[in-house]
Design brief:
This protein has 588 residues and is an alpha/beta fold. It is 42% helix and 14% strand. It binds one DNA strand of 29 nucleotides through helix 2, helix 4, helix 6, helix 8 and helix 13.
Length: 588
DNA sequence: GCCGTTTTCGGCCCGACTGTTTTCAGTCG
């Protein structure tokens, strides 16, 4: 079972408890929903966590739910869940996938109209609504019946199922909207928040906050955004619109004097905010987007125009948005022990660059010359770079021909280093790891290089055990120093292959091998959570752009975002080091 | 059912918005 399926199952259990007796089971409901959230957000599979005995590392998973999850992984079913679920009609569950349908509404409909078939229940509800039957029910009316049809219609079109956007795509949507909002003189400040501010690799909804003294005017202006398809809701402090492609944009407004608390609230994550409010509550403080209420002062509201002051008022250091995920950051902020996260300006080089040098590669070539890329590196303030074109194709060349091509390239790089003193050029390559674990070129050719990056570009469909063996064998070659795009995933396109990370981490640690964070926006692997695990294992990382064109060298910031979300400091990152330190790590 | 800088027992985040209602229930983030 996938994490998404498991999370859904837990939500169904929570829904069943709500129907059974909401007040009696209120805290079980909350607990199951919290656990479902954690599993949905986890980038480790529950299956793997269970095998590694790490299920309780998920916040919200305690002894009971851990036990049930272990049972689920082992038997594919859980006795306790089945018992709870057997008390409610199963036909209500498909309705819960439709936005605006919750357990109460779904149960009421299924129960009253005696809908028994979970395969047809959505169609059945639609027919009843079209006949006007639902509006007659207690607690329903014409408007809610019409809304229901709208929701079902959009659900069937897949409007709400659209995949999450990669970060640059969401940024573009936000930038356009912000440009529009800034044209209004009532808008004092405007910021993209939510997962966009936390720099998550993919973004669901676009969240934007505005500081204004005229909330009504700003909200009116917002909902008349030209790219709007439909207004989802609009109140005194928030509004939501739908734009084409089924993307939601949420806007929140506050006066400038409360903007700090609004930033904090709307940046999230939900898990961070819940934990933060629980933490504050123990100190007699109640937090909201409006500010802080102190029990000892009769719940008088204190406003904060600035987010730093808001955190300080709780006795906490300001927490960078990228790590607000309830991973222990609140405790560390309280003891003033938060790590100093890596910054873009710390980056001094890039080791994954595909130039247009005619290397006759096995995969795609770069489009810009080495000289152009060096010039760009200079303008980015780098001290060094490494060229790492794909190895010459094996099928089209003899070993001797491969050697000759690489010999020419070595000479070229030697020349570049002589003529260009400001940027040091390292001679690298991106060499394929073949299915049997051998590298794609022979030792005499590899000896021409300072070192090589290695990666998987073919035969992805191997078992986890086989793939782990393959990667470790490839990485074992003394010239192999960096494993590039270590999971092979393409966001929204393919999931990547599976590796036994505990084995990979142990190997990299003992053999001093380096893992790449690939900054290309559709890759971004290692993922944030694997970065954190790698760092906990004491492994060094490198952030590379994998540029095939000179403009792509500016994508470095997306890799830095991932590193920050994985709690990386400057000390963890190879290409954030001075040349002399870097070269000792890279070529030990 | 989870969790610990007041606790291994006794608490449990905080609010917005909509529709159907005359003060609230349900859903969402």
């Amino acid at each position: 079972m996938t994490n998404a399926e498991i999370a859904k199952l837990l939500r169904h259990v929570a829904a069943a408890y709500i129907i059974k007796d909401e007040s009696k089971y209120h805290f079980q409901v909350v607990a199951y929903q919290k656990a479902a959230d954690a599993i949905e957000n986890s980038t480790s599979e529950v299956k793997d966590l269970a095998h590694e005995n790490r299920l309780e590392s998920l916040p919200g998973v305690g002894p009971s739910i851990r036990g049930y999850l272990e049972e689920l992984v082992k038997n594919n079913s859980v006795e306790h869940f089945n018992k709870v679920l057997s008390n409610v009609p199963e036909a209500m569950f498909p309705l819960l996938d439709i936005p605006s349908f919750g357990p109460k509404k779904a149960f009421k409909l299924v129960n009253y109209f005696e809908l028994g078939d979970k395969k047809t229940v959505i169609e059945d509800v639609k027919k009843l609504a079209l006949k006007g039957e639902i509006a007659k029910l207690d607690g329903f009316g014409d408007k809610s019946q019409a809304d229901m049809l709208q929701a079902i219609g959009e659900f069937e079109l897949g409007v709400n199922k659209t995949s999450r956007m990669v970060l640059p795509f969401a940024s573009e949507i936000a930038d356009k909207l912000i440009e529009y909002l800034e044209k209004s003189s009532d808008v004092k400040k405007v910021f993209p928040l939510g997962s966009l501010r936390r720099k998550k690799e993919t973004i669901g909804d676009v969240d934007v906050a505005v500081a204004t003294n005229k909330p009504k005017e700003v909200l009116d202006y917002f909902v008349s955004y030209p790219l709007k398809e439909r207004i989802l809701e609009k109140g005194d402090a928030t509004a939501s619109i739908l734009i084409s492609g089924g993307k939601h944009i949420d806007l929140m407004v506050q006066p400038p004097e409360a903007f700090g608390s609004l930033l904090q609230h709307f940046t999230g994550s939900k898990e961070h905010n819940i934990k933060l409010r629980e933490y504050a509550l123990k100190k007699g403080l109640s937090l909201s987007e409006y500010g802080i209420k102190r029990k000892e002062k009769d719940d008088k509201l204190e406003q904060y125009d600035d987010e730093v002051k808001f955190y300080h008022a709780l006795g906490l250091d300001w927490i960078p948005p990228e790590i607000r995920e309830n991973q222990g950051e609140i405790e560390l902020a309280a003891s003033h022990k938060l790590p100093k996260l890596l910054e873009l300006k710390d980056i001094k080089g890039d080791f994954h660059l595909h130039s247009s040098f005619p290397i006759e590669p096995s995969h795609d070539m770069g489009v810009d010359t080495m000289e152009t890329m060096i010039e760009k590196a200079h303008s980015l303030g780098y001290d060094y770079l490494g060229f790492s074109e794909h190895n010459p194709s094996q099928s089209k060349h003899t070993a001797k021909q491969v050697y000759e091509i690489l010999k020419k390239r070595s000479n070229k790089i030697e020349q570049l280093n002589k003529s260009n003193k400001s940027i040091r050029v390292i001679s690298l390559l991106e060499t394929d790891i073949m299915p049997n674990g051998d590298l794609a070129i022979d030792n005499s050719s590899l000896d021409l290089l300072d070192a090589t990056l290695v990666s998987i570009h073919s035969v992805f469909s191997m078992s986890k055990v086989e793939m782990t063996k393959r990667v470790i064998k490839g990485l074992s070659h003394p010239k192999a120093r960096i494993l590039t795009h270590p999971t092979g995933r393409l966001l929204n396109q393919r999931p990547g292959y599976e590796l036994d990370w505990r084995e990979i981490f142990a190997f990299c640690k003992s053999e001093k091998k380096i893992l790449e964070i690939n900054a290309f926006p559709s890759r971004l692997d290692l993922s944030d959570s694997l970065v954190k695990q790698a760092i906990d294992h004491g492994i060094k990382l490198v952030i590379n752009t994998d540029s095939h064109a000179v403009d792509q060298m500016s994508l470095m910031r997306y890799g830095v975002d991932v590193a920050r979300r994985g709690w990386a400091t400057r000390d963890d990152i190879l290409n954030a080091q001075e040349y002399n330190t870097m070269i000792k790590w890279l070529l030990p």
